[in-house]
Amino acid sequence: MKFRKILLTNLLLFGFILGIHEGKVALWKDGVKRPVKVFPYQASMFPEEDQKRLQEGIHVDTLNELYKMIEDYFS
After folding, report:
1. Looking at the whole model, is its pTM more than 0.90?
2. What stretches of 6-66 adopt beta strand conformation (E)?
3. Confidence tier at 69 by pLDDT (50, 70, 90)
């Protein structure tokens, strides 16, 4: 249980960046060079404006914000 609290605290402190990795939408933890998750969605399937935002990287501060953004993009 203690490890879970530390992990959750670490995730909340640093936030996430939603962007593009090798043509697919991916998720990075702030300060980490490799994505923690690469989604099976090509960035090219999104509207041009969304592609631009993803290329620049969309910073997300909270898990709720992250879940909402993922739901908006992939549903």
Report:
1. no
2. 16-21, 24-29, 37-42, 58-60
3. confident
